[in-house]
Amino acid sequence: MESIIEVKSLAKLFSNQAALENVSFSVKKGETFGFLGPSGSGKTTTIKILTAQLVPTDGEAYVFGVPTSKLKNPEMRKKIGVLTDNSGLYARLSVFDNLKLYCDLYDVPYSRIDEVLEMVNMAGERKKVISKLSRGMLQRVTLARAFLHKPELLFLDEPTSALDPVNTRHIYRGLERLKEEGTTIFLTTHDMNEAEELCDRVAFLNKGKIQLLDSPLALRRKFADHTVTVELSGGEKEVIDMGPAGAKALHEYMSENKVTSIYSNEPTLGDIFVEVTGRKLS
Amino acid sequence: MTFSMKRLLAIFNKDYKDLTRNLYVSFTLLVPLVLAAVFGRQGIDSIDLYYMVFNMALCLVAAYIQCSLIAEEKEKNTLRGLMLSPASTMEILVGKGLLSFVTTILVIGISAYFLGYMPENLLIVSLGIILSTVFYIALGTALGLVTRSVMEASVIIMPFVFIFSFGTSLSVLAEKYPILQAADYLPNSQLIMIAKEVEMGTGLAELWSHFGIIGLWVIGMALITMVIYRKRMVD
Predict the structure, then answer these.
(1) Cβ-contact A205, A39 below 8 angstroms
(2) What is the band of A269 on the pLDDT scale with cuts at 50, 70, 90?
(3) pLDDT at residue A238 above 80?
(4) How far apart are CA A202 and CA A139, in angstroms?
């Protein structure tokens, strides 16, 4: 399948301190690719390099087969949507006026404004002035602006970091809709649930290096200890291996009607990250 | 290189709406107008005084407002959004300068009316003012790009307001300090020279050196602005 992003041995130094070291990966067309890592791990630096906001110290980065240094072409810009920590809005203007500017810049009809506001759960808020919005609402307008022009590739840096669970879920549905329409999404997050829910593949970034890269399912299987925990009626818990011996034990408990709960011991992405890096995802 | 009028006007319209709701910046427009109204009522008839008001308008409106608009875009992280959009460097810079340009010309026009100033040759004087406006807008853009906030922009512009509003007075001291003769080559001094010579009936062909000097200031400042802008496109 066609690669939309191709990164080879990317490195970035800030005053001799490595923010990225020998980072290589590719993102396929239509894929939602997650970059997981704690604050300061190099996630935003990667997005900034891929959107030509930063120049790498070493290595190569291509977007749509074009070196990132050549991304200034208007036609290329129209293919890309970006939400980063430095995506600002005009505080004295309304939500509509902010999005109208970008409709004109990207040659998009104004009717698209209501569509994107609905996607971020802000239908009916178009007349509100930006300075009067809460942090979560600002985040949603900025997100709406990022996919206003139906980009082929969307870069999202911590897109739900300021949102409550209800709006987070709404955004997830919106992103799933974009994915169904064929949008490739490059997402950075330190929220493992978000990565599990949205991403086809994830890369674990720690101290500027990729530690692991695979699908969430493959990673969970790889790090699974193949046991389940059984809670018994007496309140005691038993960890049972998922082999034939465990099946026999489980069968016995169940025949004796002792089992109150069974749950998998499969690790979450967060557990795997901690195991691999020794660091927490926060 | 592509150039889209639609994108340019979109930036202009956004800035216009934003400026009308920005009391801090739009209040600045009143300073030269009030000064012109006061001098006009006193019936003062002096090219130097007229051009003190016009040069102040150029500094406060063309340079300062432009500087504040750019600095605020940087402070609020909105400039990066424009830079990442399909709008080219030229569309953004011209779009952002257009509002300052129109406002400056309007303020100078109204000030001239208040002052009762009617030049012998309106076309030549207008050319000089238009060329000077472009220089001050480029200056404001460059200063806005190097500052991080509107507050910082208000401070950094002050020495430039002083030099370009009152720099002509420095040439009075040139006999004692010959280096101050350089003040004659400032764009504001050149504009006054054009205005004075126009009153004596001098034609455009004989004023080319003054226009040439202002033109050099425009080209130099435009190049500096372009270089700074391109550097600001990346972190």
Answers:
(1) no
(2) confident
(3) yes
(4) 23
- In the stretch 79-98 of chain B, residues with CB closer than 8 A to chain A read 80-82, 84-88
Residue B130 and residue B44: Cα distance in Å, rounded? 24
Identify the pLDDT of residue A281: 55
Report the number of distinct structural domains present in chain B.
1
* A17-28 sheet: strands from edge to edge: A17-28, A3-14, A58-63, A66-67
How far is Cα B204 from Cα B210, in angstroms, rounded to an integer?
A: 10
Which pLDDT score is estimated for A193?
87
CB B52 within 8 A of CB B195: no
* Rounded-to-integer distance, Cα A41 and Cα A238, Å: 38
- Across the interface, of A53, A89, A93, the residue whose CB is closest to B235 is A53
What average pLDDT is seen over chain A? 90
ipTM surpasses 0.90: no
- Cβ distance A86 to B86 less than 8 Å, yes or no, reads no
DSSP for A104-123 reads: HHHT--THHHHHHHHHTT-T
Measured between CB atoms, does B149 come within 8 Å of chain A? no
Could you count the other beta carbons within 10 Å of the beta carbon of residue B190? 25
Question: Beta A32-36 vs A184-189: how paired, if at all?
Answer: parallel
Other CB atoms closer than 10 Å to residue B47's CB: what's the count?
Answer: 15
Please name which of B166, B154, B160 lies closest in space to residue B217, comparing C-alpha atoms. B160
% residues pLDDT > 70 (chain A): 98
CA distance B97 to B91: 10
**Distance in angstroms between the alpha carbons of the first and the last residue of chain A:** 34
